[in-house]
Amino acid sequence: MPTTTTTDPIPIRQATPSDIPSLTTIIPCAYNPDAFLNKIFPPESVAIRDWWTQVYSKAIGLPSYRILVAVSSTANEVIGVLTLHLHRPPEFGEQGGLCTLVPLTADHHEALKDALVEQARDRATLMRQEPNFQVDLLGVDRAFQGRGVGRRLVQRACEVADQEGAAVFLQTTKAREWYLGLGMGFVPDKTYEDIAGGVVVRPAASG
Ligand SMILES: CC(C)(COP(=O)(O)OP(=O)(O)OC[C@H]1O[C@@H](n2cnc3c(N)ncnc32)[C@H](O)[C@@H]1OP(=O)(O)O)[C@@H](O)C(=O)NCCC(=O)NCCS
């Protein structure tokens, strides 16, 4: 009987150090033109690109981080990334996110610090002591958007969370409805000024 093998059309894997050069440009590739993201991570800044190199180099070596990437089949470059950071007791309240692994540069805007403080406060309030993966970053290169790459990254993140028995917590600037459309869970009861942004929580799988 012939055997059939199914290959994933958009394979997702964990990042390796050789992915770091293309990881450092994924934010401007995914978000440009986005006024807020361009303000907090000025795309032309060499210092911020170096900072991303340090951030990813550190995160890839840490067991509490999962850097999931989709890679182009032709150029072997990162076309999409989703970063996960596991918070578990007893360090639960002390860990920051991806952007706190390396001190911010003078080129980062103050608004980033405010956003990180707000995110930490929301996570502490909502997740309490429940183990959770924080999604710090999700972006798909504009040239590859609309082809299911983002969906596959989110699906893989949910699989990882289920394997660890952890919830997923994320704060989005503009894609709240998109996450909910992927069955990501619920929006906590909070009034958001920005109707496209806010917090999304996916509870840990039961059983
Ligand atoms: C949001 C994002 C990750 C989606 O990735 P993607 O690979 O383009 O998404 P998919 O191909 O899996 O899904 C595409 C669908 O999502 C919809 N979609 C994309 N962005 C959306 C948004 N912000 N809100 C609602 N729906 C959205 C598309 O219209 C499309 O709908 P369709 O299937 O009915 O045509 C990507 O567009 C991106 O990187 N955007 C900029 C960065 C960003 O917003 N990141 C989100 C975290 S803040």
Automatic annotation (TrEMBL):
It comes from the Eukaryota. Residues 10-205 form the N-acetyltransferase domain. Pfam families: Acetyltransf_1. One of its GO terms (molecular function) is acyltransferase activity, transferring groups other than amino-acyl groups. Gene3D superfamilies: 3.40.630.30. CDD domains: NAT_SF. InterPro entries: Acyl_CoA_acyltransferase, GNAT_dom, Trichothecene_AcTrans. PANTHER family: GNAT FAMILY ACETYLTRANSFERASE (PTHR42791), N-ACETYLTRANSFERASE DOMAIN-CONTAINING PROTEIN (PTHR42791:SF2). This is N-acetyltransferase domain-containing protein. The lineage of its organism: Eukaryota, Fungi, Dikarya, Ascomycota, Pezizomycotina.
